[in-house]
Design goal:
- The protein is an alpha/beta fold and 216 residues long.
- Helices cover 47% and strands 17% of the residues.
- It has a four-stranded parallel β-sheet, sandwiched between helices.
- The longest helix has 16 residues.
Length: 216
């Protein structure tokens, strides 16, 4: 079984669809804690937030063989707490970051939530290591408000507008969609003609790879 810790209900159908394409018989459980993202946005990574994420992971771990934290604002905390649990705890964006810095030298990294900026910056800095890779991290202004209103088309368009503006000014090699919710832009007909990486598919593949030989 794969457990998920989400901060938005919209992720449930997305990740179920990805699992259904890969291993439809694989069981999964979803824990949704939107309040944790709200606290991260309001106060950052406080000791109280770490405790709350630990409690949420305890719930997600129940009966699971591996747990994926799909929130990029909380992924760093989840990764830090991983050694406290008997099953692997994965942050959704880790594999994406490691692959992205190997594929290109000039990355445009887009986020839609302010609280994701610093964890994403630290993740990619760690993934780059000694490589000569340029990282350009940008917030898509106004996009998250559209997401919170349930306007996924408006959300995708805000991200696309930012991407078009930035790629029009600088010759990036690759675009990174830092948050799992952002891959809706790949359906946009006017999305920039650049290699684009996102975390959901890569994260699900990593979770499946971490399952025991006979998953429950």
């Amino acid at each position: 079984m794969i457990g998920f810790l989400h901060t938005a209900d919209q992720h449930i159908a997305r990740f179920d669809a990805l699992l259904d394409k890969r291993q439809p018989s694989l069981t999964r459980q979803h824990v949704v804690r939107a309040d944790l993202l709200e606290r991260a946005r309001a106060s950052g990574q406080t000791p109280e937030l770490v405790t709350q994420v630990r409690d949420a992971l305890q719930e997600a771990v129940r009966d699971a063989d591996v747990v994926v934290c799909s929130c990029s604002s909380l992924g760093q905390i989840a990764e830090t707490l991983a050694n406290e649990f008997a099953v692997p705890i994965l942050r959704i964006d880790r594999v994406m970051a490691e692959q992205a810095v190997q594929q290109a030298n000039n990355l445009l990294i887009l986020v839609t939530v302010e609280s994701t900026l610093e964890p994403t910056r630290e993740l990619f800095t760690d993934a780059v290591g000694e490589r000569d890779v340029s990282l350009s991290l940008h917030l898509c202004e106004g996009a998250w408000q559209q997401f919170l209103q349930g306007d996924m088309q408006g959300y995708a368009q805000k991200i696309t507008e930012t991407a078009l503006e930035l790629t029009g000014k600088h010759p990036y090699d690759l675009i990174v969609l830092a948050q799992a919710s952002m891959d809706v832009v790949l359906e946009q007909s006017n999305w920039p003609a650049l290699t684009t990486v996102s975390s959901p598919s890569l994260g699900v593949d990593a979770a499946i790879a971490n399952l025991p030989a006979s998953p429950t």
